[in-house]
Amino acid sequence: MIIWKSPFTAAKVFRVSTESQGVVETVHVPVMPDEVVHWMTEHAPRVMVDGTYGGGGHSSLLIKKLPPGEGFMIGLDRDPAVSERVDTESHDPRLTVFLGSYERIPKALEALEIPKADAILLDVGLSSDQLADANRGFSFTVDGPLDLRFDPEFGDPASDWLAWKKEDEIANAIYQYGEERCSRRIAKEIVTRRRKENPVKTVNDLVEICRRCVPPSKNHNIHPATRTFQALRIVVNDELGIMERTLKAAPEWLAPAGRLVVISFHSLEDRIVKNAFRDDERWNILTKKPLRPTDDEVRMNPRSRSAKMRVAELA
Ligand SMILES: C[S@@+](CC[C@H](N)C(=O)[O-])C[C@H]1O[C@@H](n2cnc3c(N)ncnc32)[C@H](O)[C@@H]1O
């Protein structure tokens, strides 16, 4: 397995087990596994790309569907922590994982001298491994630095972004990407703290502000910081921009009848996928409505509850 450092300039070589016996065990449970395997492999692909490798859960299921000893399973992830979950002893030589954004899929194919992929999977958002890591700032129930970057070696942490953006820009981002109605009050408090030379630096700093500004939700099951953290994560990682650019370019990366499977977790992302498939005549949409996890899956893996899967193939 190769992990290629973003942006694919320096190469590092690791080996990985596809059974996740790595140095650090993954705690992530792959979402809609049966549906992913069905839609990714129904047309007997030989080259599959998992653009959001994470804990390798989907990849390890998909690689089993390649013809014995043949084909390619290519993973990409922006998070360097993925390399901590590698097993240096055993690996399936058909698996190669690159460190970098899924926007770089053509570079990964080029590095392996493969012209096109037969199937691409994007399971966007956060993994449970990232949520469990207090140093990343993804979980508002664990205090730590307010970072929120998928790749902590690239770009600015969320605390820096909040330290230099104008109040209006902060409010607009929280409203637009978090659909948070109290965005103006939250932005005002962030900037007031900054003026008092006590800027927001940690998860708890921001959680406290959200608690003061956001009234409890009617059914009390949404944490007051949920929407604000989602918005900042989307902003610091340019998540929607990357997704839009990728969906537009993906038909060029796929072989005839190649498939794109996208799992998203909130309405902004799902809308982008729906519109990208609908507005590009190169796609033949295979799922008229988004597929949802079964009740049983949601019971076993509550994090799957907001997943929506859409599938298209090259027309
Ligand atoms: C929901 S997890 C994927 C879990 C994976 N399917 C599994 O079964 O273990 C999402 C992953 O996507 C990664 N990610 C987010 N944006 C990315 C991007 N633009 N390019 C590559 N990976 C990205 C995150 O770092 C995270 O590891």
UniProtKB/TrEMBL annotation:
GO terms assigned for molecular function: rRNA (cytosine-N4-)-methyltransferase activity
Binding site for S-adenosyl-L-methionine: 56-58, 77, 102, 123, 130
Top-level division of the source organism's lineage: Bacteria
One Gene Ontology CC term in the entry: cytoplasm
Renumbered residue ranges of the record's region Disordered: 294-315
Entry annotated with the keyword Mitochondrion: no
Keywords: Cytoplasm, Methyltransferase, rRNA processing, S-adenosyl-L-methionine, Transferase
Cell compartment(s), UniProt: Cytoplasm
Assigned EC number: 2.1.1.199
Catalytic reaction equation(s): cytidine(1402) in 16S rRNA + S-adenosyl-L-methionine = N(4)-methylcytidine(1402) in 16S rRNA + S-adenosyl-L-homocysteine + H(+)
TM helices/strands, residue ranges: none
One matching Pfam family: Methyltransf_5
GO terms, biological process: rRNA base methylation
Job description of the protein: Specifically methylates the N4 position of cytidine in position 1402 (C1402) of 16S rRNA.
PANTHER family to which the protein is assigned, alphabetical: 12S RRNA N4-METHYLCYTIDINE METHYLTRANSFERASE, S-ADENOSYL-METHYLTRANSFERASE MRAW
Family membership noted in the UniProt record: Belongs to the methyltransferase superfamily. RsmH family.
Name the UniProt record assigns to this protein: Ribosomal RNA small subunit methyltransferase H
Source organism of this protein record: Rubripirellula tenax
